[in-house]
Amino acid sequence: MYQINVMSESDKEIIVSWHYPAPYQLYDLTADDFNGEYDFFSVFDDDQLVGMLKLHYNEGTCHLGLGLRPDLTGKGHGQHFVEAAVQLVKEQGYQSIQLAVISSNERAIKVYERCGFVEKDYELMLAGDVLEEFLIMQYGEEDCF
Question: Who wins on pLDDT, 40 or 60?
Fold first, then answer.
């Protein structure tokens, strides 16, 4: 079971050091990515930092960003990780949850669909210095639990 805590400065420094392999390098974060109107959380498995969550609330909807530690991606951890994030958002009283994922990231899209997210829209956004097409997904009525 994951432990989710408000992110510390030391956790931010560790997360900035994470680097995803191609073609996922667009998910690498910099210190500047931790600025803004977001709540950041660190996700631990035992005492190991395994991921991060970025939450932004707007008009009753929680916009969710997720980042699993690069060496854990593609190894079957995704669904449980997303379930923990959805549970945290629900515990904060939000039922409406959206996320954005690069539309070519089929691996993540499949995990999100298994967890009850459905395709809502497409939007062009900057990912680093590159304009990318993102799929906007909405959490559906069915739980992923």
Answer: 40
If we measure between CA atoms, which residue out of 116, 107, 79, 85 comes closest to residue 20? 107
pTM check: above 0.85 = yes
3-class DSSP state for residue 42?
Answer: strand
- For the record, the structure tokens of 130 come out as 């590159």
Asked if the model's pLDDT at residue 106 lies above 70, the reply is yes
Peptide bond connecting 21 to the previous residue in cis, omega within 30 degrees of 0: no
Question: What burial class does residue 10 get, using C-beta atoms within 10 Å of its C-beta: 0-12 exposed, 13-18 middle, 19+ buried?
Answer: exposed
Q: Is the pLDDT of residue 145 over 70?
A: no
Distance from C-alpha of 79 to C-alpha of 92, rounded to nearest angstrom? 20
List C-alpha distances in Å: 34 to 11, 96, 136.
11, 23, 21
Residue 85: what residue type? Answer: A
Q: How many CB atoms lie within 10 A of CB 87?
A: 15
Strand partners, 61: 58, 96
Q: 């997360």: which residue's tokens?
A: 15
